[in-house]
Amino acid sequence: MMTFTSHEAYFALLSPDKRDLLRSIQAEVEANVPGALQCVSYKMPAFKQERVFFYFAVFKKHIGIYPPVTQDVDLIQELAPYRGEKGNLSFPLAEPLPIELIGRVALALSREYARK
Length: 116
Description:
Low-confidence stretches: none
Distance between the termini: 31 Å
Helix content: 25-40%
CATH topology: Aspartate Aminotransferase, domain 1
Structural class: alpha+beta
Strand content: 15-25%
Order of helices and strands: HHEEEEHEH
CATH class: Alpha Beta
């Protein structure tokens, strides 16, 4: 696996449809968390404020978003169809991406990680 220095370097290796999905996530995070900085961590596109709070990557059949939301009970319930056993989110590529929901995840994670 290659190491990337930017979101665009990661996106450049993807098919146009996957690239568009990740760009829509990127834009949604930036719209919901003003001031969040793009970075790369664990070989994935990510966002940070004081620390990294949101990672996203595309896989063969899904888009993964990490780490799990742990403090917003209502949001956690709404995310149930997408949560894996550790709480990480998996959005199947065969289904429409719930972009507004992902924006709320980014906001919740930014708040959680600002408190830690």
